[in-house]
Amino acid sequence: MSKGNAVSRHWKQYKYRFLPWLALNWKKNRKSVRRVSRSEECESGQDGSLSEKLEHLFLEFHQSEAANIPRDIAFFESCGFCIEKRKSSIADAGCGVFVAKGSIAKNAIAAMYPGTIYNPSDPILIQSISNQYILRCIDGILVDGKSNGISKYIYRSCSKRDMIGTYESCDTSWLTETPKNPLAIGQYVNNQTSSMPANVVYQEVDIPISFPLFIRKYLPNICYRNKFIEEQDIDLEDKVLMRVVILRSLTEIHENEELFSAYFTEVF
Q1: Which of 66, 161, 253, 256 has the maximal Cβ count within 10 Å?
Q2: Rounded to whole angstroms, what are the CA distances from 50 to 55, 210, 211, 238, 245?
Q3: Reduced to 3 states, what is the DSSP secondary structure of residue 97?
Q4: From CA 139, how far away is CA 258, in angstroms rounded?
């Protein structure tokens, strides 16, 4: 691939994260918009059932790991499907995410969006340069899903900072080609097209502080700013540990089908 084609391909994905481009092209891209109501926006991240589903799934991961069951077998037995990163069916779109085995049921957790979590006030300018993997939540929280460069360095640094004794604060294996949480490849899901409509939707979930320490090693996210260290007098009861973003299936997705999302979000 020539340098010009490579630049063009990266721009096609990056432009959906570039605010000036979004502002100029919002109306002409209405078919790619994810529309949510004000009530849904207020409830975003408050779905305790999804947090409980993640906890249950991670417990199964932990038990399988302890029993030395191969990761792909354990994941399929737990979820009924396997996903993998491979060349997208969209020309010049780079990698995409496909169902490699089984099928994803409607309203299931199809993938997770890994990366460092930034509050709207946190510095992210340097990390955002030429970074096509920054996802913006409805409330302005950002998730940097880039697995190399300064983004990788920051994620690893924050993960070591937040270790509690011997307990890992998060999963760093998503930075490699073999993540121990197979769901943590959601950053490679491509935007829908006119012929390939979205079959997954981003859903924001707040993980409670009560989430068990020993299974946090499967959470592919870490906060850039640890509020529990900085605010010593904070009341931990009923507090949120962190925001995570899952990709929830909108319909049943079968073997060898690619996952597609909607990058735009409009609140009405």
Answers
A1: 253
A2: 9, 14, 12, 16, 11
A3: strand
A4: 28
Judging by DSSP bridges, how do beta strands 95-102 and 200-208 pair with one another? unpaired
Q: Is 193 helix (H, G, I), strand (E, B) or coil?
A: coil
Supply 180's token pair. 């121990």
Question: Which of helix, strand or coil describes residue 116?
Answer: strand
Residue 255 DSSP symbol:
T
Give the pLDDT band of residue 39 (cuts 50, 70, 90). Answer: very low
The residue whose two tokens read 């068990």 is 212
Nearest of 151, 117, 121 to residue 136 by alpha carbon: 117
Report which of 96, 72, 73 is spatially closest to residue 85, judged by C-alpha positions: 96
For tokens 């990698």, what's the residue?
A: 95
Q: What is the pLDDT of residue 236?
A: 52
The string of pLDDT tens digits covering residues 93-115 is 889 999 999 999 999 999 999 99
Nearest to 207 by CA among 42, 54, 35: 54
Q: What is the tens place of the pLDDT at every residue in 139-176?
A: 889 999 999 999 999 999 999 999 988 899 999 999 99
For 170, the token pair is 């998060």
Residue 37 has pLDDT above 90, yes or no: no
Give the span between the Cα atoms of 94 and 137, in whole angstroms.
24
